[in-house]
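Example record

The entry below shows one chain as it appears in the dataset: sequence first, then C-alpha cells.
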Amino acid sequence: MALEEKTLPGDVIVAAELEEAIRAALVNDVVPCVAAFRIAAERQLAPLAVGQAADALGIHLGTCQLGLFGYPGHAKGWSKVAEQPVPEGLEAALLEAAGAPQQLACIQLWDLAERFGIPRLQIGFVTDKLGIKIRPCQLGAF
C-alpha cells in the first residue's frame, strides 16, 4: 500500500526522540525494515507504532525483510534467494499454516523461517511462489 493511500489513527503524535531516531536511520530517504524494528526494540515500542510514526512523518519504509517491497531496481528483494534449495517440509508447513484464506501474517513467516533455519527473504520468496498472501505487516506497511 502506498504511503499516500494510508489512513492513520487520528491520535498519532510522533515524539521528538522517535522522529530523531527514524530520521537517523534513513538510507536514501527510506527507513529500512530492520532499522524500524531496531528502533522499536530500543524504545520498547510495538513495531506498528514505529511504522505509523514513519507514515505520519511522510517517510517510506524499505528493504522489507521478507523481500516484498523497497528494493530499488527490483520488484522484489529475492534475487539472492530464488535459487536456494527449499527445505523439506517448508512448502507443506506454509500451506497448512495459511489455511483456507491462503494468507499468513509477517510474524508467522518470521517464526517459520526461524523454525526451518532459513533467511526471512527465502521464506518470503517461497510464500509468494505458492500464491499465499502476506498480511498484515508488523510495521503497518500493508
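Notes for this example: Residues 106-116 form the longest helix (11 residues). The longest strand covers residues 30-32.
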